[in-house]
Specification:
Layout lengths: L1 H8 L2 E3 L6 E2 L2 E2 L6 H17 L4 E3 L6 H13 L21 H9 L4
Parallel strand pairs: 1-4
Antiparallel strand pairs: 2-3
Helix pairs in contact: 2-3
Length: 109
């Protein structure tokens, strides 16, 4: 969905999960989650600095998780638009149900 939106509006698309793609396979390593988000943030800010439109599709459950991206947008003078996916979509990466429930529990609107 996010990738299609990015293509539709001529934007680049980033998400932390891209960090875990190795030779076309998703290889999640929770010990590298911080590095994955740092890389996603760096790519998004670099693209904004180059005048590109950016779509970031991470699972933001708290304002704190979105703050870096909102700060980048403000710094580079671009309007940020937040789109919230509602409903039950499951997990394309087989995230355990209990993990998804913890994420739902910390949701900040």
């Amino acid at each position: 969905m996010a990738r299609a939106l990015a293509e539709e509006i001529g934007a680049v698309h980033y998400e932390a999960d891209q960090y875990f793609m190795v030779d076309g396979d998703y290889r999640f390593d929770p010990s590298k989650l911080g590095a994955a988000h740092a890389e996603c943030q760096a790519k998004a800010e670099t693209a904004l600095a180059m005048g590109k439109s950016v779509v970031v599709s991470n699972t933001f459950t708290t304002h704190k998780e979105m703050d870096p991206y909102l700060g980048f947008a403000e710094y580079h003078g671009v309007r940020a638009e937040i789109r919230t996916a509602t409903g039950s979509f499951g997990s394309v990466h087989d995230v355990p149900a209990e993990t998804l429930e913890r994420m739902r529990a910390r949701w900040e609107d």
